[in-house]
Specification:
- By secondary structure, the protein is an alpha/beta fold.
- It has 11 helices and 16 strands.
- It starts with 8 loop residues before the first strand and ends with a helix.
- It is globular.
- The chain has 2 domains: 9-149, NAD(P)-binding Rossmann-like Domain (Rossmann fold), CATH 3.40.50; 153-316, Alpha-Beta Complex (L-2-Hydroxyisocaproate Dehydrogenase, Chain A, domain 2).
- The chain is 43% helix and 20% strand.
- A hairpin with a 2-residue loop joins strand 15 (281-284) and strand 16 (287-291).
């Protein structure tokens, strides 16, 4: 039986999962000043309480807000629920094993929002990102514009950073996207990349770089392998994704209508239907307002289709 619908508190966020990513996201959101209330939820209540206390003790240096451990009743009126909960891949475990395990975890989390008639936005951050975005959309029954994943927002930031370093230019002046799966089949949309309106190859030559094919290959591989490199060195990645969560929340709370490559179920764009993957979309207070019809080369479209095909095979094996 559904509980009575509660009015959305636009200045309230809920974070489900207080591991490295969840706690780093809570810290980033505390510093942002976007919210006046953040509730942390974790299967380990003590972990949530510890993180809430640790972050709260820095509030005299930030803006007034409440940060506390709670339950799903406390999250019912949040404007954004950020779901980072999920199991990590263990040695000898296949990707499909991890998918089924985390879809099972979502099978316990998402119904808690559904039965409370949650009226906010579900932002999925747990991995495998695209598959769990699909699971959340199906399990929640919410309009698809209000259920989406952080997608390739971080991958795109990595691309901009590495390109900025390569060209010796402010990464904020680099305009380029990583599209497709948040994973090994992601693609760099080189054909539309530019630096403040100057086509990328032209800008590269201006900066003394002429071997474009090799540079594009090396940079795309560096972006794709960034997470693996960080995990090898420090066992986990969390600061970059926490800043990505902050950026997405900023677009929603401030209704910025920002163009971000978030993961959402496609319905015909690039010939893809029923599969979640990242393409640029306008993000504002109601979630995804519209997809942005980015121009892709034939090769990039083929690669995007292959990325969609890989995700579709995994979806076909799910019991949702």
């Amino acid at each position: 039986m559904k509980e009575k619908c509660v009015e959305v508190n636009l200045r309230k966020a809920a974070i489900i999962g207080c591991g490295f990513v969840g706690s780093a996201s809570a810290f980033a959101l505390m510093q942002s000043g976007l919210f006046s209330e953040i509730v942390l939820i974790d299967a380990d209540r003590d972990k949530a309480e510890g993180e809430a206390l640790d972050i709260s003790h820095g509030l005299p240096f930030a803006k007034p807000m409440q940060i506390y451990a709670g339950n799903y009743d406390d999250a019912a009126d949040a404007s954004i629920a950020i779901i980072t909960a999920g199991a990590g891949q263990k040695p000898g475990e296949t990707r499909l094993d991890l998918v089924k395990k985390n879809v099972g975890i979502f099978g316990k989390i998402i119904p808690e929002f559904k039965k409370r008639d949650f009226q906010g936005i579900l932002l999925i951050v747990a991995n495998p990102l695209d598959i769990l975005t699909y699971a959340a959309a199906r399990l929640s029954g919410l309009p698809e514009n209000r259920v989406f994943g952080s997608g390739t927002v971080l991958d795109t930031a990595r691309l901009k950073y590495i390109l900025g370093e390569h060209l010796g230019v402010d990464s904020r002046s680099v305009h380029a996207f990583i599209l497709g799966e948040h994973g090994d089949s992601e693609i760099a949309a080189w054909s539309s990349a530019n630096v403040s309106g100057v086509p990328l190859n032209d800008f590269c030559e201006m900066r003394g770089h002429h071997d474009h094919i090799k540079a594009m290959h090396d940079i795309a591989e560096s972006v794709k392998n960034s997470a693996y490199e960080i995990i090898e060195k420090k066992k986990a990645t969390y600061y970059g994704i926490a800043m990505s969560v902050r950026r997405i929340c900023e677009a929603i709370v401030l209704d910025q209508k920002s163009v971000l490559p978030v993961s959402h179920i496609q319905h015909g764009a690039f010939g893809i239907d029923g599969v979640p993957l990242s393409v640029p979309a306008i993000v504002g207070k109601d979630g995804i307002e519209a997809a942005v019809p980015i121009s892709l080369s034939d090769e990039e479209q083929d690669a995007l289709q292959k990325s969609a095909d890989a995700l579709e095979k995994v979806i076909e094996g799910l019991d949702i």
